[in-house]
UniProtKB/TrEMBL annotation:
Protein keywords: Membrane, Transmembrane, Transmembrane helix, Transport
SUPFAM superfamilies noted in UniProt: MFS general substrate transporter
UniProt key word Membrane: yes
Protein name: TCR/Tet family MFS transporter
Lineage: Bacteria, Pseudomonadati, Pseudomonadota, Gammaproteobacteria, Lysobacterales
Species, as recorded: Lysobacter soyae
């Protein structure tokens, strides 16, 4: 049953959701260039120890989100979207203050745990959009949220790098201000989207189980290769948040300001591919060719990142790496072709759980190997090894993509 919100209310609600997602991404983008350096400061400037701790932080963060995201969704079905979204914004703002004041590594770790719980609001935001938007306009609304992600990841790291250049704690204060302003804005602007008669009578805890959703994929053998491709691709992607800041500092002597600028360049290149080339090239190439081309570009780009002896050569690989952005939309389109409309929602939920699983594995994989191959006691000095691992993972995904192309030629677009 569609919400009874009138058109002006619906427009205001969608604007708020856009701003909510944008501010959340901005807030997290602000701390990307400085969090590893703050961890490094707490462990006495030892990059090797900092890498281990950043890996632990990332793994715990993803593991908590793996469970908290479906729980937040279940709570919003029972109590409505508005209170869950507002509490998430408030909790996130208070938690950034908590981390800004952190006097020790353990305090900062607790802050990241709280952040993982309070930041899992994107599922609720997506449900809100479905509540208030007619079916024929939902794609555009979800595209607006995707644009908020892109803008946030371009501006956030650049602004965070600039603030962190003056003090490593300034970005946390900036993120807190954004999140709390978002809470106050929503308190006065955001209407409830889920009518009382459409809410669940009790919290369906059995549906708040991410492990069960992954098992759903096994019921559709034709999806197995695509699911593995998405898992390997997302696992490869976690090399960015896991080691990029520490790697850039260790190998190229880039501080927070330089890292923020580079991440902004990466974000702009990715946005151009996602917003322009995907729309132009995928219909012409077909989904399988676009998937293969994207994965091949990712393999070459990651290998170039790991081998680049200078920061200039690293930057030269960024445009090649951006073409990897063709692969994700192509793979998702192939997934939707493999199952009927009656299970699309559950299948997409299962794919989202795979992303969370990649987040649990990735941070430790990359940070621990980075720490192993740098500094005194390393079997060989090879700081680029995390990028080579990511390239290998995409190489495996590329092989699977070729096999799927050969065995499922009838699912190609554009042919």
């Amino acid at each position: 049953m569609q919400t009874t919100l009138k058109a002006p209310q619906r427009k205001a609600a969608l604007v708020f959701i856009f701003i909510t997602v944008l501010i959340d991404i901005l807030a997290f983008g602000l701390i990307i260039p400085v969090l590893p350096h703050l961890v490094e400061q707490f462990v006495g400037g030892d990059t090797k120890s900092a890498a281990y701790w950043v890996g632990i932080f990332g793994t715990v963060f993803a593991a908590i989100q793996f469970f908290s995201a479906p729980i937040q969704g279940a709570l919003s079905d029972r109590f409505g979207r508005r209170p869950v979204i507002l509490l998430s914004c408030l909790g996130l703002g208070l938690d950034f203050i908590f981390m800004a004041l952190a006097p020790s590594l353990m305090w900062l770790f607790v802050g990241r745990v709280i952040s993982a719980v309070t930041s899992a609001s994107f599922t609720t935001a997506n449900a809100y959009i479905a509540d208030v938007t007619p079916k024929d306009k939902r794609a555009g609304a979800f595209g607006m949220v995707g644009m908020a992600f892109g803008v946030g990841f371009i501006i956030g790291p650049m602004l965070g790098g600039w603030l962190g250049h003056y003090d490593l704690r300034y970005p946390f204060w900036g993120a807190a201000v954004l999140a709390l302003a978002n809470f106050l804005y929503g308190l006065f602007v955001l209407p409830e989207s889920l009518a009382p008669e459409n809410r669940s009578r009790a919290i369906a805890w059995r549906h708040a189980n991410p492990v069960g959703s992954v098992k759903l994929i096994l019921q559709y053998p034709q999806l197995f290769a695509l699911a593995l491709i998405l898992l390997l691709s997302n696992l490869a992607h976690y090399v960015y948040p896991s080691v990029f800041v520490l790697y850039a500092d260790y190998r190229y002597d880039w501080g927070p300001l330089a890292v923020g600028k580079v991440l902004a360049v990466v974000g702009v290149c990715s946005a151009l591919v996602q917003g322009f080339l995907v729309r132009k090239w995928v219909p012409v190439l077909g989904e399988h060719k676009a998937l293969v081309l994207g994965l091949l570009a990712g393999v070459v780009g990651f290998a170039a990142y790991g081998a680049a002896p200078t920061g200039t050569l690293f930057l030269c690989a960024v445009p090649i790496m951006a073409l990897w952005g063709l692969a994700g939309p192509a793979a998702q389109a192939l997934v939707t072709r493999e199952v009927g409309p009656e299970v699309q929602g559950r299948i997409q939920g299962a794919m989202a759980s795979l992303v969370s699983l990649a987040g649990i594995i990735g941070p430790a994989l990359y940070t621990f190997t980075f720490a192993k191959f740098i500094g005194r006691g390393a079997p060989i000095e090879l700081p680029g090894i995390p990028w080579f691992i990511a390239a290998s993972l995409l190489g495996m995904a590329l092989v699977l993509a070729f096999k799927h192309w050969r065995t499922h030629p009838d699912t190609q677009a554009g042919h």
